[in-house]
Amino acid sequence: MRLDLQPWGETMAELVIAARAAEAAGAGVVWAPELHRSAFTTAAALATGTSKVAGGEARIGVGTGIALAFARSAMLTAIAAADLDELSEGRFRLGLGTGVARLNQDWHGVEFERPLPRLRDTVAIIRKVLAGGDPINHKGVRSIRVRGWRRPYAPVREHIPIYLAGVGPAMVALAGEVADGWIAHELCPPADLRDRILPILGKAGRPDFDVVAAACCSVDDDPATARRRAANVVGFYASVRSYAETFGAAGFGEVCENASNALRNGRPADDLGHLVPDEMVDAYTIAGTPAQCAAKIAAYDGLADAIKLSPPSYGLPAEEVRESQDRLLELVGSLR
């Protein structure tokens, strides 16, 4: 199983340093999220800051994990993907996700109606743009009609892999149908992957389809410290209404209610870890000593092709995140 990393950095320069350390530790792909930074800009920095080739073979991959699918036109997304594949000399992976309705409508001013067919159309348009040709036509919830345009640069590869993020069954099924890979939500326990996700993906007969699990991984010699650092990640999602049903089914409905109330009363969304019991942290993150974390990572083996690991960062001071990332990189290196 490939070990990937979603690196953290207080500055873009520090992000690149972390990506280089991930490469040295033997990580397979570094993924750039999209929230406080542009996923494409970050991916460009990671692509140019890591080794492009070693002994004639591509080294660490670079991906967007994930870029927002609807906040840009599908054509601009395709052009950015082609540029990034050129910058990385064929190491780029385009990870896309829908985001939630409020983020699309209130933050970015874009429609969110019918997200499933909208994402299907987005993937189709991106592939048509990357394939070249004139004209480029697609009619659907998202449409495109282009005449007299052709990218005048030779592509690095014929095919750039597209990954889709999905939590609900319809989005997961769409990834299995139209994408080259699926990227998990940050809280994706092995049991959920085994019992719910894999049957929907229908990977059988598609050996090249890449299943990327994901987890916040908090490593410390003191398990209590490791759990405390990871708790804010779980607390953040516990306050989001979209996840209440999932957490409630697992017996953590009261935690969600308390987190939502705290948020309404002015508590920051990334500072709700005090409401999260240890058993919930253990259920949804990889937290503990190096040996405990290694065992929890091993539980994904045979289920996922890769696991995207990220250090805890929610509500923590930069020095503590930095220390957590260093311990995570040490762990990755020890498992390669």
Automatic annotation (TrEMBL):
Pfam families: Bac_luciferase (PF00296)
Tree of life domain: Bacteria
Keyword Lipid metabolism on entry: no
Luciferase-like domain segment(s): 10-302
InterPro entries linked: F420-G6PD/mer (IPR050564), Luciferase-like_dom (IPR011251), Luciferase-like_sf (IPR036661)
Keyword Methyltransferase tagged: no
GO MF annotations in UniProt: monooxygenase activity; oxidoreductase activity, acting on paired donors, with incorporation or reduction of molecular oxygen
SUPFAM superfamilies reported for this sequence: Bacterial luciferase-like
This protein's UniProt keywords: Monooxygenase, Oxidoreductase
Listed PANTHER family: 5,10-METHYLENETETRAHYDROMETHANOPTERIN REDUCTASE, PTHR43244
Name this protein carries in UniProt: Alkanesulfonate monooxygenase SsuD/methylene tetrahydromethanopterin reductase-like flavin-dependent oxidoreductase (Luciferase family)
Species of origin: Actinoplanes lutulentus
